[in-house]
């Protein structure tokens, strides 16, 4: 039996500014996210002959820690239903991974968002976009962007505030370093060494949020556009040997990108 295959695309941070911190410790960001469709995971449901939901794929982490499982747990708590229970006890989700883990490309968040959209459709849950966003925010800061379906957006708050940014698509090339950058570790390095820069970052972010992505990339050096670049280099010194002029880092690393010439 043929399965409907869903696409979970990568994202790129054109810029990423850390502009404050909430009392619970979460950082406030100002960023431009763009979808990068050429690099995507593929996902589909399959029926199983046993009860109990299962996530199948090479994630580099235990399935209990997987964002898809976390999305299902959150969905079950916030919007429990017999349809959801019956469907998940009879199916598994299969993920064909192409987005590298720990690469700053949002693969885990994209998987969670795509799972929420596909189970809402396939199991006929009838949830609207706001309901899915509520679940997504509880799973990860990047999930709401992927749920939005936007090609380019200004993302703020802890990632839950999405504002469409209308601009021509950019042809981007990627260079992903074979290093898994752990986001919490990079953020910890930022807090230890660079958190006094957040006020200046907030002022810079106001200008960047108004610029088209190409203009933003032409306006500053990589370390000026991504506040996590220097903390990532401090946390993973081996990244230094892969830095090249004209390349920028996405997220907390380890992917570098540039506009194709």
Characterise this structure.
- There is one protein chain.
- The chain has 261 residues and is of the alpha+beta class.
- It is 35% helix and 26% strand.
- The protein is built from 10 helices and 9 strands.
- It has helices at 67-78, 82-88, 107-122, 129-139, 143-148, 183-193, 198-208, 213-219, 222-225, 229-235; strands at 6-21, 27-47, 54-56, 91-96, 152-157, 161-164, 172-176, 248-249, 255-259.
- Strands 1, 2, 3, 4, 5 and 6 form a 6-stranded mixed beta sheet that branches. The chain has a 3-stranded antiparallel beta sheet with strand order 7-9-8.
- Strand 8 (248-249) and strand 9 form a beta hairpin.
- Helix 1 (67-78) packs across helix 4, helix 3 packs antiparallel against helix 4 and helix 6 (183-193) packs across helix 10.
- The mean pLDDT is 94.
Key features of this structure:
alpha+beta; 10 helices; 261 residues; 6-stranded mixed beta sheet
Brief sketch in words of this structure:
With about 260 residues, this protein is an alpha+beta fold. It has helices spanning about 65-80, 80-90, 105-120, 130-140, 145-150, 185-195, 200-210, 215-220, 220-225, 230-235; strands at about 5-20, 25-45, 55, 90-95, 150-155, 160-165, 170-175, 250, 255-260. The protein has 10 helices and 9 strands.
